[in-house]
Specification:
There is one protein chain. The chain is mainly alpha-helical. The protein folds into two domains: 3-156, no CATH class; 163-246, no CATH class. Helix content is 56%, strand content 8%. It has helices spanning 21-49, 52-56, 61-76, 78-85, 91-96, 110-123, 130-138, 145-150, 187-203, 206-220, 231-246, and strands at 3-7, 13-17, 98-102, 152-156. Strands 1-2 form a two-stranded antiparallel ribbon. A two-stranded antiparallel ribbon has the order 3-4. β1 (3-7) and β2 (13-17) form a beta hairpin. The protein is elongated and about 85 Å long. One of its GO terms (cellular component) is membrane. Residues 18-145 form the RDD domain. It is a multi-pass membrane protein. The chain crosses the membrane at residues 25-50, 62-81.
Length: 250
């Protein structure tokens, strides 16, 4: 499992673990079980209940093929539809807690999912999936050919989340906010700020603290006296002030 750095719209890098080959195979297996269940139910309904086999006997081969394609269409477009509607996840990916994201930090769109789906013909269904497996093993971000072509990767969402990993802070009842300008930030902005702030504290990375502090000041147009607010204290207050004004636990 490797790390992938995604640059956000706030020009801050966040590191994610890429999904392992095992996780992706497990998600694929779950999706295949779902498709298999659909085929079984479809078979029982159309061939056992409605006796579609007798109807097929009245059709030519091309017509039979057309009916079969229509019946099995949900299986063929399952991945494309799920990833488009579930923001980069199929039901298998949801179960395993992995997700498709754009490497450049933007939300993957339908065009990206379409490219990934098209390349599945080569990655997954040619040579029993060997091409896709080799590509995931040798590529930098464990990407299939479809991921490389679309600029996407699959990340793991299995983080051990505690209250400290959210934007929620335990505030004292008499807490007084300092910077009302924080209401200009979004939940996602503050989440990104807090995640990087905590990482910088753990690694004692003063450069990240400095860049993060400067970026916040730039966005909120704040002119802060550095003698009164150290970078650590400033960022900590920003997070607490946002929580004070919004009271959101995300």
């Amino acid at each position: 499992m490797s790390l992938i750095a995604i640059n956000t719209s706030q020009n801050v890098n966040i590191n994610f673990n890429t999904a392992s080959v095992g996780e992706r195979i497990l998600a694929f297996g779950i999706d295949m079980l779902i498709k298999g269940a659909y085929l079984l139910v479809t078979y029982l309904i159309f061939f056992r209940v409605f006796n579609l086999g007798a109807f097929f006997n009245t059709l030519d081969n091309w017509s039979v093929m057309a009916v079969i394609i229509i019946i099995t269409l949900p299986i063929h477009i399952y991945t494309l539809v799920c990833e488009s509607l579930l923001e980069g996840q199929t039901f298998g990916k949801k179960a395993v807690r992995i997700k498709v994201v754009k490497i450049d930090g933007f939300q993957a769109g339908f065009g990206d999912y379409l490219i990934r789906w098209f390349f599945r013909l080569v990655d997954v269904f040619s040579n029993s999936g060997v091409v896709g497996l080799i590509s995931m093993i040798v590529s930098k971000n464990n990407q299939r050919l479809g991921g490389i072509a679309s600029g996407t990767a699959v990340i793991s969402l299995k983080n051990h989340v505690t209250i400290s990993h959210t934007i929620l802070e335990n505030l004292k009842e008499d807490y007084l906010p300092v910077f009302p300008q924080v209401i200009a930030l979004t939940d996602n902005d503050v989440r990104i700020i807090k995640e990087n702030y905590q990482k910088a504290l753990k690694s004692d990375d003063r450069q990240i603290l400095s860049k993060l502090s400067s970026k916040i000041k730039e966005i909120l147009k704040l002119d802060i006296d550095s003698t009164k607010f150290t970078e650590r204290r400033f960022i900590d207050i920003i997070i607490k002030d946002y929580n004070f004004y919004t009271g959101k636990d995300i």
